[in-house]
């Protein structure tokens, strides 16, 4: 085989002594298909720390010679058609990250348990029915994702993973969660949604660091608890388990004993009909109580109720650039408390990565409403003319910004000896070949947004922000903009409820001395107020208003939208 001709990526990595190699997509897949597998030379790149091979359906196996890559710390071989993982993977003693998700795996080799440095394991979206015994030997394992498999139980020694903080095990066939779950002292996130659980052990409430749980889609014996997990915050569910609920809980054991004798006598005097009615009444009361705990309230203010409502005019030139836009104004978010702002920014990033397809299908931008001057114009401008003060930078043209980001990306690649880049740099290619760049401009002709690249420092949200102007843009469709905005607002309502329930102290960032702001617009109740925003064409003809009556009609059962 002529490696230089057929596999220049591998030849270049060897020549430049790279620490990272990324192979992906149709061109690589075609080479794997014609070669009958990966080029064997790849297993001689003994300096590699990071190896990523993704989106290659022709890749059905990895050769046992992978044992030679003893300096690997990250191995990403997802979205292929792997049917097995070689036992020699146990030789990769420095491996910290192993992602073999979205393949055709039916089992994992026991040798995975020999990876003592392993921190993150992702085996989601396969056909795996069981996890190997001995995972407790992976003493540094912190994150495990086994979702979308056929796993029925956790191994007994699974609960001895002292550093395990995140367990994603949704969409499996798991029938039991052991009371030993309390031994997972570092556990912060537990997702067991859409499994076959009938009970949740009360010992789960002893996981003191637990911040997020998801048991939706399980048919629990305790119907009140089932209703709670389909909408309540983690704190409410843990409090219920801690109090004992109706099952075997800490708070129920003594009560069961005290009431046992009297209960027998009372039961004798009640008719079957009376007992049935009493149970029905109790369940209805429980449902009302849970509904109150669950409720996420969003109130929509119509444009007609606010003469000063914002309007955004959309330029015709955007048709071939990035034509779709929806906007709205949100009041009632509490960013002052604790880490509320950080949680919001993290949620926005997650939406960008997931629903927005890493910004390829849509991009979210948030602004401090008090710093905006309307009306706004969604425009398309020549790169040398478009000027913005990017987040964390001084004012520059779009040409200067793109050039600077490209230089930073190249420096990053050289310093880390990588092929790919991180952060904002990975979105630069989304504007390749565009003669005009999209931008949102205020009444004073200041560019406040340059999608999908960055926002303006001038309208950056802070802990003191009381009103937000939200925008979602897309080059794909108007519906994806609406879907993303719906998801963002639901998440904001959820975060606001979390902040209200936990009553954190005011955060840092130099604003801890700012007194709490009484929520005359709904903050004390967690209620969000959404002000409609219209987008119009240059002649003033309506293009879209958000939210409309057909928006926010999500399948989130506890969302209460008031029109």
From TrEMBL:
The keyword Nuclease does not apply. Transmembrane segments: none annotated. It comes from the Eukaryota. One of its GO terms (biological process) is phenylalanyl-tRNA aminoacylation. Residues 253-270 have a biased composition (Basic and acidic residues). Residues 243-289, 503-524 are annotated as: Disordered. Keywords: Leucine-rich repeat, Repeat. Residues 321-497 form the B3/B4 tRNA-binding domain. This is Leucine-rich repeat-containing protein 47. It comes from Salmo salar. The gene is LOC106566887.
